[in-house]
Amino acid sequence: MNGSAPDPTEHVLILGGTGEARALASSLAESGIEFISSLAGRVNDPRLPVGPVRIGGFGGTEGLRDWLRSNRIRAVVDATHPFAATITRNAARAAADAGVPLLRLRRDPWVPGDTDTWTRVPDLPSAAREVDARGGRVFLTTGRQDVGVFAGIRSAWFLIRVVDAPTAALPPRHEVLRSRGPYDHASESRLLRDNDIDLLVTKNSGGSLTSAKLVAAAELGIEVIMVDRPAEPDSPVVSDVGAARDWLEALFD
């Protein structure tokens, strides 16, 4: 669904593409609160939530602000990925400009346990430098849009797991594995062992869909290069769908 909403009813805009966004849409479908979900359209054949959906960008902060006003949006829930920094920043600015309340629905980050061996880095270029210094056999799970950051590394072999095929330059020694989670512990352990992986590189996305690789890595004594989350605007934040629905129901009441 694209364009303006067809009626004067006030809606909630869910900025989605995550499991939390789909769960919130399902919850609101039972509540009577009208909503529309928005996906960026960067993944082919995305998992769609229930209810009306629009796909594509808004045209930056100003475009989103105007869309909020013209579509009678009562509230925005930013349930995008923790590393979707641009839309999170644009959403906060646009909602403030339009006078629309915004809530950030963001899953909790992963925290290392006693058996984990993590090296935390602030960004992807830092992760690439750590990989280049170590070499070896690397399991890269940072997403297809970030593969190019590692393209110049010749000291390592990469197993690159992505949903859609990468379009950026690739490291000279690599194998691409196209796959979509969730993943279980047994299959992740087998994948790490079968490919003789000695270094895992990932973003701190949080959640349970892809956390099994961290458990498997810890058990196998594999080091993890963990990319920290980017800074976000100062907005109200909840980490579970129930709290987001409670916030919306209180707002509409």
UniProtKB/TrEMBL annotation:
Pfam families: CbiJ. GO terms for molecular function: precorrin-6A reductase activity. It comes from the Bacteria. Keywords: Cobalamin biosynthesis, Oxidoreductase. GO terms for biological process: cobalamin biosynthetic process. NCBIfam families: precor6x_red, PRK08057.1-2. This is Precorrin-6A reductase. It comes from Gordonia terrae C-6.
